[in-house]
Every structure is written in C-alpha cells, then in structure tokens.
Amino acid sequence: MDIKKFISSLSVNIFILLGMGGIMLFQSAGDFVISFKPAVSFEDMLDGKEVKAGTHVAGDVIYVIDYFASESTYTQRSDGSRSGDKANGRYYLLPTADGYIGLKSRQVDVSEMEKIAEQTYDYMMGGEEPTTTYFMQGSVEVMEGQLEKYYREYLADMGYTEGEIADMGQPLVIKYVSFTAVRVLFLIGLALVGLAVFFVWRRYTRE
Q1: Residue 140, SS3 per DSSP
Q2: Helices marked H in the chain
Q3: Is 135 exposed, middle or buried (0-12, 13-18, 19+ CB in 10 A)?
Q4: pTM score, whole prediction
C-alpha cells in the first residue's frame, strides 16, 4: 500500500463518519452481544437459575422488596450552580433463590414497581399473592460504589449479618436496556464506519 496515497485519500468528513460510527459501536457493542444471549426470567432466578454480569434478563417482575436507593440527574451551570434534581428511577431489592439482586427501574415505571412492592409486603405478611406485574428487560451489572454501600446497609437494616450478606456473593444489579434500540444503534454505527471505509477505498483507487 502506498502510505502517501492512502493519507491523501482521507478527509475531514471521513474522520467525522469514523468518529460518529466508532462512538455508536463503543456505546452499543456490549449490550448488542448480550441481546442475542438466551434470556433468564425472574421466575428462573426464583427457581435457582444463576445470573452474573452480562446476563440477559427478560420477563415479568412478580415480587420485589422496597427500594434501597434512588437516582436523579441535574445540570451543572457555568457559574457553579446547578438545576434542581430530576428523578431518574429507583433501585429495588429483588428476591432470588440465593438472596437478593438489585433492580433499577426507570422513573416512568416507579408507580408500577411501588404497587408490586406493596403487594409483595402484604403477601409476606400472609395476604394474597401480588397481582400486578411489570415486564422488564435488561442486563446484569456488578454493583459498585455508593450504590453497593446502600444495598448492604439496607440488608443490614433488614436484620442480615455481615456474614450472611457476604454469603450472598458479589452484589449485582439489573438495569433496563431497550435491546431493539441497541441493535439499531449498533447497525447505524457499523454502517457509518463501513461508509467511511468505502469512501477511503474509492478515493484511494481513483488516485
């Protein structure tokens, strides 16, 4: 390959296409791969199915304990001040056969999750089984930082000892993912990179 000829085939527009496509591929590649894995349902987890970071989860949430953390976002202004916090969902405690796992709900789904949490509590106190269900799809991630701290503190408040919490293993959290959107984003990124490569090849062969 003629290096000088190859360099002359490049342009600002090609770098823009490569940059945009690369960012899209980087953001979506992990979940794109996960989207093709067999999904584990919440009933499977209650029956003892093991999940780990990178597991594809999809199904109806039937039981959920109260939330142990909430998430909000804000805008930092140039003068150092910031806008009011905007609620961005809650982290609930989801029972499994081996203990608990975190479940991050979107803010739009909080009302449904609160109904399930209330009905789960009533069921634990001897009432009827929950009738409200909530379909959730997402991927499993390792719980870290402040979120893990809140998770452990909540379990301790429930009466679990440090040893019992440790026996539950590495804390995990399920986060919502629209796998359809992920696949679209990945394919668009792939198309942009492919288009950039095509333009480079065409200019290279013309010169």
Answers
A1: strand
A2: 3-8, 12-34, 42-46, 110-124, 145-157, 162-167, 179-206
A3: exposed
A4: 0.82
